[in-house]
Amino acid sequence: MVHFTRAASWVALAAATALVLSGCGASGGGTDPTDVNPDGEVKPREISWLLSRPADGGVITAMQKIADEYAADHPGFSLNLITTPDRPSYIQKYETLAAANKLPELFDTDATPFAQKLAQQGRMIDVDALLSDLGLADTYREAALNYQRFDDGSLYMVPFEFQLEFFWYNRELLDQAGVEVPATLDDFAPMCEALRAKGVTPIALDGADGWPLERYMAYYPFRQAGPEYVQKLKTGEAKFSDAPGRAAAEWLYGLGQAGCFQEGFSSTGYADAQAQFTSGKAAVYNIGTWELGNLATDKLDAGVRDKVDYFTLPTLPGAVTADNEYVTPSGIGMAVNASTYDPLVRDFLKFALERYPAEIVASGALSPTTDVETAIPSNATPLYSRAIEQSGDVGTKIAMPWDTQLDPATNTRLQQELTLLVQGDITPDEFVGTMDAALTENVGG
Amino acid sequence: MLPRRSGLAVAVFLVPPLLLYGAAVLLPIVQSLVLSLFSWDGITDLAFVGFDNYVKMFTRDDVFWTAFGNALGYLAICLVLQLGGALAVAGLLTALPRARELVKTLYLLPAVISTVAIAFLFIRIYSLEPVGLINQLLAFVGLDGLQTAWLSNLQTVLAAVSIPEGWRFTGLYMLIIYAALIAVPKELEEAARLDGASWWQAFWRIRFPYIRPVWITTTVMATTFALRGFDIPYLLTNGGPGQASELLTTYMYKTAFVHTDYGYASALSVFIVVECLVAVGLIFLLLRRKDA
Fold it and tell me: Which residue of B has its CA nearest to A100?
């Protein structure tokens, strides 16, 4: 008995040490998440923004400039931008910091289940309330805000971008193969076969990162059943073996069988996939307007510059979503840490968010707000302005990227199984079986 | 029996490193052991689940078993390349009359190149679209039929991620074994030769028994390194396609830092610790001197 007590106290001690060392505190909130205008004086200090955006990209350049202007009037203020552009690495970093309760004043996140937990614990400021308080709520595109919302409609992230995802294609290669731009999703496989017959890689795919192929998984259900399917799927209410999931699996298996993607796509990275398209080796490439600078300016290889065009997500017979509804993300959002929120953070955000739209459109990007117009760069091809104009005609439903929707464990499994499905290593039946089992294990569906 | 003062001196010198070892190695293992009994996503409260993480690991998780099988395959390939390759090269090196330093340096070179650089190098070498080095060579010698995307083909990917790891450390183990081989007294070998022993007999009965202690150490090092292998598979394929090159280590990392399932990841890490201990125990058992 004595031994047992001693052992138990050791275990208890070890457990306590473990908890202390791993910094496990349940919540960090000292501030009410809806108290967006706290009393007190603005005391300049350094604030940090943990973000996942390109280091020399438009958002960082604009925000750095704005922060420098703010610092000129507020000696002692500085904005420390800590960026990890590689998204999977970023998410690991941010989730680990969240677990250790060490998130800085501002941090990037998608509207993931993990972020929703943080919001529910009162660790993020209510952005609906914040934007209303700053008098900016009406300037934002509805679609840009909706993209950041959780399924219950609550908003905890500020958008800094607005993007449209297109299928870019090489007109010459399609002409040579004698095929038209796909009118429906079902036209993809025949298009691929015709291109393959001409020795052309039909679609360049960054398979190493997982999310690009996962987009394809989202397309068929979005057209067939609307955005609700994935919302139900992630809670276990719907299954992969339901009609939309099964149809998507069949479609993707068909794409694989038709040789749509380059051989060995699973180890091709982002830059290599893009290079296959921009060098004229691949005919189609699915990417968003954040690549306009590389795809619609004179940076693009002269050999393909005049041949590149784009089409938006094709429809389906009996589609429930409109042609102008597709993947239109407002990028990863910025959350405001409730525990470090004070008059300074509010004052800086007011200053920054008012000036930001004018700065971002000057860089040639789309603003998440409607009050400014994008400046077309001088080296742009005609495609640039066409793509920018396209943003004025976007429907209300958004095809949400599934990687921001599903719980991380199911998401990882989905990305792995999708590769096997497209490679033809598993059948659609095996795919939905495995995925439903994973879903049950992870969300208890 | 040491005199008292000397005992104190031993304690003074041994206790600090032991404390450091305890804090850096034993404590995290105990932490993992405790955490493996909980379900924890890092931000909500810990929930005690008893042995459910272990039950899940052994009965409900097919990825765990795939990863375990892959880890053994990875281990086998790495050991053959590292120990077999090292012994062969070291043996040949002792027979080399000139330029030994140059050959040693050339073999050691991969061990000092950054892992990330090696990973990018091999992504290019294995590529099929665009055609990489291996597939070009195959085409050059007329074996076009054997061309494949080495990192996407389920049959080849595990070997493809193991080979770079095996290759890069062959030189290191070669150095260790070479040092042991040149320490073998020449007269023993010469005596054996005079008695009519063949090259193989001289190697197997004289040289190898002589270097056995070094061989055991090298085997333990290579085995534990291979069981903990992580960086090259993670960088080359991230465990894919599917789970074809997923190792226990990459799976544990994903479970902890991508799935934020720290409890289950701790259970996996406890398994990895046990696995390493068992492996080292087996090596000592198998390579123990028969006469000992």
Answer: B42
Q: What is the pLDDT of residue A4?
A: 41
CATH 3.40.190.10 is held by the domain A165-327+398-443: yes
Which tokens belong to B183?
């320490």
The model's pLDDT over B207-250, given as tens digits with 9 standing for 90+, comes to 888 898 899 889 999 998 999 889 999 999 888 788 999 999 99
Domain ranges of chain A: 38-159+331-367, 165-327+398-443
Instruction: Assess whether pLDDT exceeds 80 at residue A430.
Output: yes
| Cβ separation B63–A413 shorter than 8 A | yes
Tokens 């009410």 belong to A32
Relative orientation angle of helices A243-257 and A408-423, to the nearest 10 degrees = 40
**Cβ separation B154–A425 shorter than 8 A:** yes
| pLDDT for position A18 | 44
Q: Mean of the per-residue pLDDT values for chain A? A: 90
Residues of A in contact with B41 (CB under 8 A): 99, 114, 117
CATH topology of domain B47-287: MetI-like fold (1.10.3720)
Of B45, B237, B258, the CB nearest to A92: B258
User: Which residues 135-164 of B have a C-beta within 8 angstroms of A?
Assistant: 149-152, 154
Q: Say which DSSP state A332 is in.
A: S
Please give, rounded to a whole number of angstroms, the shortest distance from the CA of A435 to a CA of chain B: 12
Pick among A21, A118, A260, A267 to test the B interface (most B CBs inside 10 A): A267
Residue A8 has pLDDT above 70, yes or no: no
Residues in B closer than 8 angstroms to A409, CB to CB, are 255, 259, 261
pLDDT band at A28 (very low <50, low <70, confident <90, very high): very low
Which residue is closest to A123 within chain B, CA to CA? B43
- A267 interaction partners in chain B (CB closer than 8 Å): 123, 126-127, 149, 151-152, 236-237, 240
Record the tokens describing residue B93, joined without a space: 């090196």
Task: Write A129-134 long-range contacts (CB < 8 A, 24+).
Answer: A129/A34, A129/A36, A130/A36, A130/A158, A130/A336, A130/A346, A130/A349, A131/A155, A131/A158, A131/A353, A133/A36, A133/A37, A134/A349, A134/A350, A134/A353, A134/A354
pLDDT at A32: 82
Nearest-Cα distance to chain A for B205, in Å, is 47
The pLDDT of A253-267, averaged and rounded, is 93
Q: Which residue in chain B has the smallest CA separation from A102?
A: B43
Domains A38-159+331-367 and A165-327+398-443 share a fold: yes
Asked if A14 and B30 come within 8 Å (Cβ–Cβ), the reply is: yes
Lowest mean pLDDT among A250-259, B7-16, B74-83: B7-16
- Compute the distance between CA of residue B62 and CA of residue B65 in angstroms, rounded to an integer: 5
Work out the average pLDDT over B70-91: 93
- Rounded CA-CA distance A148/B156 in Å is 42
Q: How is chain B split into domains, by residue range?
A: 47-287
CATH topology of domain A38-159+331-367: D-Maltodextrin-Binding Protein; domain 2 (3.40.190)
Alpha helical stretches, state H, chain B: 4-21, 27-35, 52-55, 62-79, 85-95, 100-112, 115-126, 133-140, 157-182, 186-194, 199-202, 208-227, 231-236, 248-257, 262-287
ipTM of the complex: 0.80
pLDDT band at A3 (very low <50, low <70, confident <90, very high): very low
pTM: 0.85
Mutate to test the interface with A, among B32, B36, B38, B43 (most CBs of A within 10 A): B43
| pLDDT digit string, tens, across residues A165-187 | 999 999 999 999 999 999 999 99
- Cβ separation of A416 and B240 shorter than 8 Å? yes
- Among A121, A413, A423, the residue with its CB nearest the CB of B241 is A423
Q: Which pLDDT belongs to residue B131?
A: 87
